[in-house]
Structures are given as C-alpha cells and as structure tokens.
Amino acid sequence: MSASSKKMLEKVKRVVPPMLESFHKGQLGRVAVIGGSLDYTGAPYFSAMASARLGCDLSHVICEPSAAPTIKSYSPNLMVHPYLRSSQSVSSPSPANNPPSLSSSETHSQQKSSPSPKDLASPILEMLPRLHALVIGPGLGRDPVTQSQVREIILAARRSEPPVSMVLDADALMLVNSDPSLISGCKEVILTPNVVEFSRLAKALGVDLGNGKMKPEEECEALAKKLDGVCIIQKGREDYIANGTQRAICDIQGGRKRSGGQGDTLTGSLGTLFAWREAYHEGLWEDTAGERMSREETLLLVAFGGSAITRECSRRAFVKRGRSLQASDLTGEVYDSFCGLLGDDEGVGGGSGKEKGRL
C-alpha cells in the first residue's frame, strides 16, 4: 500500500461513526438497493449484504416481483420490496404484481391506459425521505418499463432535500449514456463503470480518450469534469477515482480472480459509506481530527473507502479460495476487511466518541 493510500484511509476514518449508546435504529444507515429481475437475483443480494455487513442499520432491496421470493430466501436480514415494474409485471393481472399504493379500481384502470413511469415509481418515491442512499443497477436489467421507472427515481432523489446520495452501476449506467443530464452536476452521485462501461460512457459524453495516450487517472478526471462533479470510480488493476476537482488512486492489493459479482460488494459498501457521510455532515459526533470536511471532499473519501474495502475483500477471499473464488466469498470478508484497513469498532471515527445530541 502506498503512502498516499494510507493517508486517504486516515481521512476515511473520520466519516466512520463511533459506536455511541445514544444512537438509535436507522441513524447509521438506511440504504436501498434498486435492482433484481427475473434473470438476476444474486447481484442485489450481494450488494445489500455488503451494505449490511459493513454496518448500515437497515438494508433494503427494491426489486421486480418475480425476483422477490428468491432474494427473500437468501437472507432474512434484508427487507425486500417487490415494487419495481417490468413489461411483464405491468401487463400481468396478478395481484402480487400491483404496488400497494394502487387500489383495485386504479389498477384496473391503469391496465387499460398504461400507467406512467411516475405512477409506477410512486411506492418507491414514497420511501425516499426515509433513506440515506440508493444503490441503483445491480441485477436491474434493461427492460424499458423498468428503466423508465428508475429514471423517475433518480430525478426525485436529486430533488430531495437533502438530495439522496446515489451509486449507479451496471444497467443503470445505460440511463446515463442515453441522457447524461440526468445526473450531470449532482455531487451526490458515484458511478462505478468497468472498463467496457467506462468506454461507453466516454463515447456518450463525447470525451476523446486520446487512443490510450492519456493516463487512466486523467481519463477518469476528464469524464468527471464533463459530468460537472459526479464522482467516478474506474475499476481495474488499480482503481482510479475523480470528482472533477480532486482525484485519487486506490492501489491496495486485490485478488487475482475476476469472477462476476465482485463489483456488487463495492456498490453495497459505497451505500453504507454514503449513509455514514450523511451522519457526519449532520454532526452526529464530534470530529476532533480537524476542521469539518466539505461534502466535496467526503464524496471522494466515500469512493476511496469503498474501493479499498472491496479490494481487501477480494485479496482475503483469493488467499482462501484461489481460482475457485466466487462473489459470495467476498461477503464474509467485508467486516474483517473494514477492521483491517480502518481499525476495530472502538478505534474508528474521527471524533472523540462524544455525542452531539440525541436525534
């Protein structure tokens, strides 16, 4: 680990809350993963479990009805809501596919007139005031009805006061490619593209990457600037992170097996760190390590912290599993990786452990 990475981790510790007896359920993280469809049930589970294992209080999965029973069966620790819609579930007359906010008469009417994306999204929009962060994309799929619904969710999260922080990954990045203005200028968003997704995003934004002549960190910074402050984690051998004004490289060693689903541990970890960041800015504990940091600075720290924890999870799992490593092997490594990088529960947090009042 480089000296710069060690320095960044010291700053990340400041947004990790101390364990105070005065905290009540929900203050240290209410995170929802939006994704999960007929074909993809593992990704939202891995993301939500990473969020829970890192330490958020309440971990939700908002998925398509066909995915809900399967995801529920994976773990009783997750709250699973079958509120996402797809072309299939909108056309199905089954009561199980109807959002709880719609009456039977409304449902019958909408079956005839095709409900609007905003109407379909209404049960999820009602949840936004109770959430700190959204992780959008794991197992989402590309169904046009689902994608249009998610678009409404992103717009509503931006309009919230304070804005609901968002992590966008996988098929959620398609929405950004088709309409970058959806998130442009929102400094509460982290994108986590892989190499192929990064290239597609650059093309959509009209950013010339110079045919490989630019350094990876410069490419990442160019896209972050184009999106006016959105933070980007370009995943790879090293993770390159930029928010348009600041950049960092996470060079913490990871595992050498590239099995599918490891990025879901990243998105879930980012969700919890986003929730802790909000608690930090609400002043739920004292930061005696220095002047309270800006939201712009803590955005970069959340991205770096999530990257570091995920890479350490991968390294630990690879030591145990080698080439047989699977995404599920990372889930059990989240907490130990956190402790190894940031200290145990009594040693983390930039404050003295003194509370700033009870909410």
Notable traits:
alpha/beta, nine-stranded mixed beta sheet, 359 residues, disordered C terminus
SSE inventory with pairings:
Elements (H helix, E strand, L loop, with lengths): L2 H10 L17 E5 L7 H13 L3 E5 L5 H7 L4 E3 L5 H5 L12 H10 L3 H9 L7 E4 L7 H16 L5 E4 L4 H6 L10 E3 L3 H11 L10 H11 L4 E4 L4 E4 L4 E4 L11 H20 L13 H27 L5 H5 L2 H9 L17
Parallel strand pairs: 1-2, 1-4, 2-3, 4-5, 5-6, 6-7
Antiparallel strand pairs: 7-8, 8-9
Helix pairs in contact: 1-12, 2-11, 6-7, 11-12, 12-14
Q: Could you explain the architecture of this structure?
A:
- The protein is an alpha/beta fold and 359 residues long.
- The chain has 14 helices and nine strands.
- It has helices at residues 3-12, 42-54, 68-74, 87-91, 104-113, 117-125, 144-159, 173-178, 195-205, 216-226, 262-281, 295-321, 327-331, 334-342, and strands at 30-34, 58-62, 79-81, 133-136, 165-168, 189-191, 231-234, 239-242, 247-250.
- A nine-stranded mixed β-sheet has the order 3-2-1-4-5-6-7-8-9, with helices on both faces.
- Helix 12 packs across helix 14 (334-342).
- The model is unreliable at 355-359 (pLDDT under 50).
